[in-house]
Design goal:
Length: 272
C-alpha cells in the first residue's frame, strides 16, 4: 500500500488510540539504524516467497493448531490430486506421440496448486515451532516469545520487525540478535530500509504485506476479535480496541484481495 493511501488511516488510528506520531517516527529511525542498510537481499527473498502464493496467515488465537492441520491436509490433498492428474496427462501425451491419436483438445496440462506460505503473527511463532514447523515469515513487534522468533530466524524464517513508539527498548534489545534475514516495518512514513505495507496489528499487517507483495489469496487462522488471548501485563480493554481496528482494516483489504477465514471466524493477532 502506498503511503499516500495509508496515511489517512494512520491519522485516524493515532487520533482514536492516542498514539504519538513522533514516537513512531523515532522508533522507525532507530530500527533503520539497527538493521542492515541495504534491505535488497531480504526484500527480494520475501517477494519470491510471497508472490503468486497461497498465504496461510496464523494469529495467536485459541486452537489454531487444529485449523492449521485441516488446512495443511487440504493442501496435501490438492498436491496429490495434481500429481495424479499430471502423471495421467504425461502418459496420455506419450501415447499420443506414439500414434494412439491423442486429440488436441486433450492437450491441456494440469495446473499445479499454488505454493503455500506460512506467515505468522508474533506470539503464534512459538506455538508453530512446538508443532515442529518453521514458518516462512514472522511478522512481529517483539512482544511475544522473541527468543523463539530468533530461533526460527536462525532456522530460515524471514522476520519482519515492526517499530512503533511503545517498543523502542525492545528494538534495542532484540533486533541485533536476529542473524538471519530480517526486514523492518513502520506504520508511519517509510524509510529506505523500513517499509510500510499497511496494517496496524501484527495479524492484519501480515495480510496487507502478502497482498502488497503479490500473493494470490490468503487464509486467516487463529483470528478471534471477540475474545483475544491475554498476555501478562496487557490491557484487555486496549487490546480489544486494537482488534476492532484490525477487523475493520481486514474488511477494507478484502474488497480488493481474496481473504478467507478458518473455522474459528476471527482471532487474536497481536499488534502495537
Amino acid at each position: 500500500m502506498e503511503w499516500t493511501e495509508w496515511e489517512q488511516h494512520y491519522e485516524e488510528i493515532l487520533a482514536d488510540m492516542g498514539y504519538d506520531r513522533d514516537a513512531d517516527a523515532r522508533a522507525a529511525h532507530l530500527l533503520s539504524h539497527l538493521l542492515p542498510y541495504d534491505p535488497e537481499s531480504a526484500l527480494v527473498a520475501l517477494i519470491r516467497l510471497i508472490k503468486g502464493s497461497y498465504a496461510i496467515i496464523i494469529g495467536d488465537g485459541p486452537d489454531f493448531e487444529t485449523e492449521l492441520d485441516q488446512v495443511l491436509a487440504k493442501v496435501s490433498l490438492e498436491k496429490a490430486r495434481f500429481e495424479k492428474a499430471k502423471l495421467a496427462w504425461d502418459n496420455r501425451v506419450k501415447d499420443g506421440l506414439s500414434g494412439s491419436g491423442l486429440a488436441q483438445t486433450d492437450l491441456k496440462e494440469p495446473e499445479p496448486p499454488l505454493p503455500h506460505r506460512l506467515v505468522v503473527a508474533d506470539g503464534a511463532a512459538s506455538r508453530l515451532l512446538a508443532m515442529s514447523i518453521v514458518p516462512d515469515v514472522i511478522v512481529t513487534d517483539l512482544d511475544g516469545d522473541v527468543e523463539k522468533q530468533v530461533q526460527a530466524n536462525e532456522r530460515g524464517a524471514l522476520v519482519v520487525v515492526h517499530a512503533h513508539g511503545d517498543n523502542i527498548p525492545t528494538l534495542n534489545r532484540w533486533v541485533p540478535k536476529f542473524k538471519g534475514q530480517i526486514l523492518g516495518s513502520t506504520q508511519g512514513i517509510p524509510l529506505s530500509n523500513v517499509f510500510n505495507f499497511g496494517g496496524f496489528t501484527d495479524g492484519d499487517r501480515a495480510a496487507y504485506l502478502v497482498s502488497d507483495l503479490g500473493a494470490k489469496h490468503a487464509t486467516l487462522l487463529g483470528f478471534d476479535f471477540k475474545e483475544p488471548t491475554p498476555k501478562p501485563g496487557s490491557d484487555s480493554a486496549l487490546k480489544k480496541r486494537k482488534l476492532i481496528w484490525a477487523k475493520n482494516l481486514l474488511e477494507m483489504l478484502s474488497r480488493n484481495f481474496e481473504l478467507s477465514y478458518g473455522s474459528g471466524e476471527m482471532a487474536d493477532e497481536d499488534g502495537n
